[in-house]
Amino acid sequence: MIEQQHIDRFIALLGPKGVTTDPDDVRPWTSDWRDRYHGAAAAILSPASTQEVAATVALAADLDIALVPQGGNTSMVGGATPPADGSALILSLRRMNRIRSLRADDNLAVCEAGVILSVLHDAAEDAGRRFPLSLGAKGSATIGGLVSTNAGGTQVLRHGTMRALVEGIEAVLPDGSIFDGLDALKKDNRGYDIKQLLIGAEGTLGVVTAAALRLVPAIAARAVGWVGVQTPADALALLRLTETMLGDSVEGFEVLADETLGFVLGHIPGTRAPIETRTPWHVLVEIDHADLSDPSPAERLEGALAEAFERGIAIDAAIATNEAQADAFWRIRESLSESERAQGPALQYDISVPVAKMPAFMIEAAAAAQARFPGTTASSFGHLGDGNVHFHVRAPKGTSDGPAWIAAEGQAINAFVHDAVVAAGGSISAEHGIGQMKRAELGRLASPARIAALCAIKAAFDPRGLFNPGKLIPLPDEI
């Protein structure tokens, strides 16, 4: 039980600005972004420096109080929601929001955990560089959260996830010690890679306080195209063709069904279909050049699409003629999640399978889900190039009580979809993490060796289980 005397100790340590106790101010941070998980916390602790984080963690350990690290609270899997019993305090990193350095010559930015992703984007742009990771929550997601969840996004095909973009990490470990690994060393063979253990650990092993991030040259010119195809297999063939002809200039490659495009056109004002022909599937492709002396990206993309037409891969296509049109194409992609939600209750899955198996999975898994659960509709969209799509199973039309439908059917549908993913050699979490939403399923489906390794690492770093309890690591009865 967390008592007032405990809160007073933290106030003495952090000052009144560093501790929030008003229930009205705390409450918004005790529920997840999707409003599926609800917890309780007596206070939010908000240290303003790495040293204050270390002192806070040390005091919490001394008081045997669990901490739930939190950034922008944009977790899609309940990964930053405190326990419902009020046994933990929220450790907010939002006050730590400085970009400590941004060196264009080194293509490196050192950011504190509370820096908002869009703020980093703007700072990098001002320096003639860019941070090549973007997602829908860029206006609220923080660097610490992105590191802790190994975030992905629409540019993974070319630049990789956060694991590939983090050059160094500073973090506070559960005993209050500071791991200083911000030096961006290209070669470092001093044993286990602590940095990589902390990336994607969802705050269960340490509190990320800062990260050194890789920047890339700013885009000098780009071409954005919209291509209509018959099947996901044709979309994959188009991807391989563009990779062969255009090399690593392919920045993004997204696929969606015509039905999904219709959701956007019907829900988002001002959107319009990029091509005139109605095709069963659509591809959004972007190629970027950092050097204006390179051939025109639009001309290169046009050449690749001409070859796609010649091979019978593409049905219709359009290349954006200006930046406004290119942004309009991408607006469709970025509006997919919102438009899907507007269709009614649904179960959403962030999954990955080997790229070669993805076209068949997108068709067969949807058909199998609809057959197994009559009245539902299923579809997927997303990052075909890296094998990550967002698979949705929507409730039967006319379902008015979404929570009741999820309570009645959710567990069976979850198991059905995840079993299909594992059968295809895939992962039940591609970029959103495990959190508490997928914890039991990880315990059910992961190999004994993986579970044993996860538990051993957690025990080594946090033997008392005080860091983000109830997240990522399956409980004993879930294994």
From TrEMBL:
Cross-referenced PROSITE patterns: FAD_PCMH (PS51387)
Which SUPFAM superfamilies does the entry link to?
FAD-binding/transporter-associated domain-like, FAD-linked oxidases, C-terminal domain
Q: Where in the numbering of this chain does the FAD-binding PCMH-type domain appear? A: 37-218
Q: Which domain of life is it from?
A: Bacteria
Q: Which InterPro entries match?
A: FAD-bd_oxidored_4_C, FAD-bd_PCMH, FAD-bd_PCMH-like_sf, FAD-bd_PCMH_sub1, FAD-bd_PCMH_sub2, FAD-linked_Oxase-like_C, FAD-oxidored/transferase_4, Oxid_FAD_bind_N
Q: Which Pfam families match?
A: FAD-oxidase_C, FAD_binding_4
Q: Which family does it belong to?
A: Belongs to the FAD-binding oxidoreductase/transferase type 4 family.
Q: What is this protein called?
A: FAD-binding oxidoreductase
